[in-house]
Amino acid sequence: MALRSDWSQRSCAMARGLDILGDPWSMLVLREVFFGIGRFDAMKNRLMVADSVLTKRLAGLVDAGLLDRKPYDDGGRTRQEYVLTEKGEDALPVLNAVVIWAEKHLPAPSEQAHMFVIHTTCGQRTTSADSCTACGERLTAENTSWHSLTRTPEPVRLATAPAPSRDAFSQNGPAA
Questions:
Q1: Nearest 5 degrees, angle CA 142-CA 147-CA 152?
Q2: What distance in Å separates the CA atoms of residue 114 and residue 107, rounded to the nearest whole number?
Q3: CB-based burial, 151-175: b 16+ in 10 Å, e otherwise
Q4: Are 147 and 113 within 8 A, CB to CB?
Q5: Interval 70-115: pLDDT, tens
Q6: Among 14-28, 30-44, 61-75, 156-170, which is the least confidently predicted range?
Q7: How many angstroms separate the CA atoms of 10 and 173, rounded?
Q8: Which of 24, 56, 161, 175 could form a disulfide with 84 if both were Cys (CB 3.0 to 4.6 A apart)?
């Protein structure tokens, strides 16, 4: 049974965006992938989520083009790791905005339960989702870290989408 209606064909851009990014589990899955955790079991343990919920959200994010599957060998069989796509990487300001808004408006249950957006280039914490409030540079996954005090004492550089392979570029030519 569906939890909500399909908003993918709505005339409102916000409704279409929420069709993909409006589910809390999907946002938390993206958070984990940005933190560099793309393997199913590691995500499941970190999120404390049921297999069926995680499987459905991962499939939805792959279908929507925000994540890709990358095979890896676990020593006994080939499994899939989830990595960001360019489209998934472009969701970073949305996740940053949620973190910044929550830090500003919602009480943390403990001193450790804080998360900050850090512009890695200048090393400063920012209060803007898309540009550094200290130096003005545009925030990207490549130049942004998240500092979750419950995870690590130091900020964690974010994962980025893999660069397009040279073979795909040379065979198909540059994108139009």
A1: 115
A2: 9
A3: eeeebebbbbbeeeeeeeeeeeeee
A4: no
A5: 999 888 889 999 999 999 999 999 999 999 999 999 999 999 999 9
A6: 156-170
A7: 34
A8: 161
Tell the residue number behind the tokens 């919920």, with chain if given: 53
Maximum Cα interatomic distance, the chain, rounded to a whole number of Å: 53
Q: For residue 147, which amino acid is it? A: H
* Both structure tokens of 90: 């472009």
Residue with tokens 């914490």: 125
Residue with tokens 């545009």: 138
How many residues in the chain?
A: 176
Average pLDDT over residues 149-168: 85
Give the Cα separation of 89 and 69 in Å (integer): 15
Residue written as tokens 């130091």? 154
pLDDT above 90 (res 164): no
Token pair for 128? 């803007």
Is 30:146 a contact under the CB 8 Å cutoff? Answer: no
State how far the alpha carbon of 161 is from the alpha carbons of 5, 20, 132, in Å.
Answer: 30, 18, 21
